[in-house]
Structures are given as C-alpha cells and as structure tokens.
Amino acid sequence: MSKYLNNDTISIASTRQKVIQLFFAVIGVFITVFGIVMFNRYLLMELSLGLRMVLMIISQWSIMIVPLLVIKANKENISDYFRTKERLVKQVRTGLLLGLAMSLFLTIVPILLGLKDMVGTSSYTKPWQFIYEFIYMIFGVALAEEFVFRGYIFHKLLEIKDSRWFAILVSSLLFGLLHIFNGDLIQVFVTGLLGVLFCTFREKIKGCSLLSLIIAHGLHNGLITLWVTYL
Predict the structure, then answer these.
(1) Could you tell me which of 32, 69, 34, 227 has the C-alpha nearest to residue 133?
(2) Looking at the whole model, is its pTM more than 0.90?
C-alpha cells in the first residue's frame, strides 16, 4: 500500500510541477506579446525600414523565449516537438495544400461574397512588400505561434491531462486570447476557432506535422494581403 501511495504522491507532485511551469510559460508569452505590441506602436516606426523589417521577425521569435527556457530547464530536446515519421517533402506538401485550402475557403470565398472589409485591409503596392509579408508570416508569426501553441503548450497539456480535446480546447482558447492585444473580442473568437482548426489538422490529417502547420499558417496569413489587394 505504501508503495502505491508513494507513486500517487510522486505523480501528483509531477503534475503540479508541470502545471506551474506551463502557467509561468503562458504568462511569459502573454507579457512578451504585450511588449511587442507596445514596441511596434511607439518605437518601431522611428527606425529605418531595413531595421524594422528585421526586428519585426526577431520580435516574433521572442515569444518562444520563456517556453524554450522551460524546455532547457527540463533538459528536453526541442527537436522532439518537430519529430515525426513523415518525410520532409510530405510535411511541406501537406502544409502548402492546407494553406491554399484555407486561403480559398477563409479568404477568397468571403471576399467574393462581399465580406472584404471583414477579411482585412492592405496598402501594399510593390512586389517586395508582398514577398516580405510571406517571409514575415512564415518565419516570424507562424513559426513562433505554432511552436508555442500547437507545439509546447499542446504537448504540456497532454502531459497534464491525457485528453486530446482538453489540449485542443485549452491551447486554442489561449491562442485566441493572445490576440486581444491587437484586436477585439471578435478577433479573439475567430483566432480561437483557427486554433481548433490547426489542432484538428494535426490530429486528423496524415502527414500533417508542426512544420506543416507553420507552412499552412504562414501561407494563409500571407495570402490574405495578396487577395485583399487584388480581388
């Protein structure tokens, strides 16, 4: 009996530690995003164009700092979050197809139905601006957000409670709430639904990895500006 009690006690203590670590990681992510929003609002436009372009991407990477520190403290391997049995080519192809499908149903169709103002706005006119938008969205926004929410947070939620739906709903709720700094409650709701969609892709579609989600997320976001400008 004592042996089982000790095992239960260890398990409870381990779960409590994981919850605490996840809590501080999430708080760190939210504080970092708030800092990015303030920096972009009050300081970014004072810098040269080239420096702004670089800092916009690097600032997105900062979202990953606290989760990466927790991962390092636990002596985990970052590569474990990206590890999959699927070939790289299949992961990339899946991401491209999902990104194009999302762009069709979530951007092009609404614009054709007269909902362009709800989709987004754009003042881009030069080719390099659109190219940079794709680079920023894929290697900045999508890389950071997918690693944090569909990678680290999703994985840790599964360790805390062995339930896929629990991990999907909680990680998506946090993903939606993260966008409160740049939007309103409608954007929080829509982004939360996108979080559920991304999680569902990974859980239900063969060949869909974290890398696939990064590509799909970034491609979808980047194409919004393109379609809003030319449709």
Answers:
(1) 227
(2) yes
